[in-house]
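Today's session is about reading a structure prediction critically. Students often jump straight to the picture, but the first step is always the sequence itself: look for stretches that repeat, for charged clusters, for runs of hydrophobic residues. Only then move on to the predicted structure, which in these notes is written as discrete structure tokens rather than atom positions. Here is the chain we will use throughout the hour.
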Amino acid sequence: MLAILAGAERQTVSRSQLRSILWGDFDREKASANLRQLIARIHKVERKFGLSLLALESDTLGLSTAHCTIDYSSFLAAVSVSHETEGSGGGCAALVRTWQGPLLAGIALGEAAADEWLENARQQAVRRFLDAARRALEATLHAAEMDGAWELALKVIEIDATEEAAYRAMMRICIARGDRGLALRIFERCKQAIGEELGVAPSRPTLDLAGLLRYRERAQPAATPASRASSPTPRAEATPAQQTGRQIPVVMVLPPATANDDASRALAGEIAEDITVGLTRFRRFTIVAPQNDAPVRFDGKSLAGALKVLDVDYAVALSLRSAAHGHRFGVRLTDMSNAEALWATSTDFTQATLDGPFERLIGLTVRSLVNAIDEREVRAPMTGEQASAYRYYLEGKRLLHRTDLQAIRRARKMFKEAIALLPSYPAALIGLARTMIDEWLVRGMVEDDLLKESIALASRAAALDPFDGHAMRERGHANLYLHRHDESLESFEEAIRLNPHDADILADYADALAHSGDPQRGLSFSQQAIGLNPVPPDDYVWTLGSIYYQLGDYRAALEALRPMEHSPATARILTACASQSGDTELARRYSRTLRSVYPKFEVENVRNIVPNRHRSDTEHLIDGLKLAGLA
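Below is the predicted structure for this chain, in token form.
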């Protein structure tokens, strides 16, 4: 109980919250009696030893901080002070003293709610300590602080062997002390740990530091002809962004090629504008827009030569020609490092199709262009020497397609590497915000720190780029699980205003609408999202199946969820669907899967997990689970 109080805001907790954590499996009357008995036993200890531990109010308990100290409180205060004094390296020795191992090490309480709180608090303590340690180790270290920094770095590596800030601090200390050989051995240990644990190379800052150590070992390059020395040939597998050393690629939308009539030129210009706007809304790379009134001047150069002068990585060429019925619209994406055509398409359309169907075509074209650039960038081997912020972002995004905790945390590391290289990169901040929500969901957490951190990251991304709806999407998603339904819907509505044809935003908005009690409208947006992304990711499928269940169309729900029926994440909703549809055998099979994945699953806990606005929607799901024999 003292640990719960020490970790709470203002070190005060309501009696009802204490009861729900310490005796969550008991009824209210029994839990209240247990709490009264515990307080009475503490008072007995206070009287015996002349202590004052608790400050009691009518409905709250707090710590009597004037009369006692608790090491967990001291730890939380120390890491908070470290955050406020960021940039000072003097806190290393103090941080070492604060870390005495996991919170309440060796203790398991045997109560589901209490053990869940304890596990969450332990994880949070580790994260806060590592964040504080990273800041202290990255700060400028004076000679008198190096011993403390070395000890702190060792402590950090003991907790997380992949934390590069600790290795870099030790390497810098070795450099300052003249022990270059030990610094290189530390780098090799870092490279081994990162490779074994995460399957990637060390980040650019670590490799740059190692490069300084090896400088004297490099042989001087042999003399080369001036023409080659001034323009080295890039490695064949390197991406355009790697070859130029840019952190994010530059994409140019070329002025469209059209027939020589005013109507065709005007229409082509509108299409080019739609595609340009669509690409800019992804916010992953720099877009150079076409200027129809100031076309690219080739001055005798080929297209490839002209674009190299303009220094772009990818070019999007558009064309609009007459066809047998109407027009033919063409798009081609070219890798400017080797003139390779990465993706191309053409389609015929008439004036009558310029509204709905053509709007959808533009959306699919933009997504296909983005996917083609993403695939080109991830085709090259991932090496720390060449990895850009964009590449780290793509690796994090790829890992987020998985739903296991290890993948989510690896994705978080990738997004952090991208931010280290490019601090003002909104896409990476948005990805980092999503990892907080995903971890909260996968771990089935009750504490809301990760959700609030997600909102803070998304708000920071929105401040950097107020025209990107994806930041609003993450704010909406996090607010949904905080049961702030109105704020959630407002964020999603702003996201759709900014990105009206983004399938990911539409899918999450559908989910928020359903949880807010409007599944029929949610169904419409869910179907729109799948229409824009015909090979939808798992979360689209999950949302659609959940909405059908909420509407009472259990067969449609089972059919929608069929592509994910082997995923543990959908076992709960599949069990409820099967039992409500009357398929007892199928419900039993899904419930066995649910029990195997979540052995401590209890139906009543669904009330704490599902963020429904209306209790009746939650009871509907619980009824389906109970019909399957779950308790």
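Discussion point for the tutorial: Residues 83-89, 215-236, 291-301 have pLDDT under 50 and may be disordered.
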